[in-house]
Design the sequence.
């Protein structure tokens, strides 16, 4: 199964952690929060990690 592409407007890291790779959270204990995911929930997504939306000015 191939990795689904990250849709426009979504954070690459969050998409990877949620849909693409089980290894992203494999090192965590049961019910342990992922520090990177918590950081994004609290502080928001860095601009350089968000896939730009396509311009549609037509």
Sequence:
């Amino acid at each position: 199964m191939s990795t689904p592409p990250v849709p426009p407007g979504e954070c690459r890291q969050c998409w990877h952690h949620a849909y693409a790779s089980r290894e992203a959270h494999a090192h965590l204990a049961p019910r342990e929060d992922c520090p990177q995911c918590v950081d994004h929930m609290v502080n928001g997504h860095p601009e350089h990690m968000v896939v730009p939306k396509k311009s549609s000015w037509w």
Summary: The mean pLDDT is 88. The helical segments are 12-20, 35-43. DSSP finds two helices and no strands in the chain.
